[in-house]
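Lecture notes, unit on protein representations.

Consider one protein chain, 319 amino acids long.
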Amino acid sequence: MLFYGNPAPDAELVVMYGNCQIPFLASLLAAAHGDKGFLCVLNHAPPGEEPDRPTPEQMQRCCLYLEQYDSQFDLAAWGVPPEVERYGLPLCRYLREHCPPACPTLTYPSFVMTCMWPFAVTSDPRNVPEPKHVWGRYPYGNRVALEVAASGLRGAQGLAAYQQQSAAQMPDLSALLARVVAATGPDAHIDLALHKRFPLPWLRQRGRNRIESAPQYTASVDAALSLVGRELPGWIWRLCTCSVSDDAWVCPDFNHPIYGEGFQTKFNDAFDGRDPAEVIIEATDVARHPSGFVALALIEAMLRGMIFTADVSREAAAA
């Protein structure tokens, strides 16, 4: 989910439900009310995909719920919506049911834009402002796709070449970790590298170099947690912050009902009798000084976990 505004883990959240216009609205609201976080919940997703939804814990921090009217005549403006199988209704129902009891709700219409649609690209460092383009623009488009098109390849051959070149240009995990370790605060360029290396599910199917606005992984704990949950399913995590440092670690949940057995098979005999959870926590434990950037600590722990487990898999294959 796209996130704007205050990334603090205890900040009040304005949850915004609607179409692709809401990221632009969220960016404007965040500029005016920087003390709050603005969480964008899109009412659509690619075919076969489920739209992202906030966690119940995030919903408990909701101080205002903004719901865009989406012309679904069978979705009542108030009360419990009918039990129908229309796209978007389960998500809207979930948001309404998980709002705190005293949380105010505002329903607003879609906007009519009489200019080039900016989406969420105004904060993207790849977006180059030009005098004739008020919102900026991407002058190079999708470079990999343009290179493949220029080569003359079409159809299945073109798609295969695109996927191969996309994979070859993915940021290396060790190099990405080094950038995160060296970061002194949230970094939009690192966000882009993470977004390119770990694309959202529908981008995996369309090639990883497609231009999209990156979530604020290095600034927002909510965005970082979403990434960890997506890329390390079945893993547990810990976050801690104080006046001195931000601390984090990640580790497989060996008791997980779905993934636990696989984790036990992979790791139980990998460390010469040592407790695998102890070894992995030791390998991923992060303490960043000074404190104030908890999301960066979690991202660093995630990357350390990925690199460590990849090394374990290589050693097992070579044995």
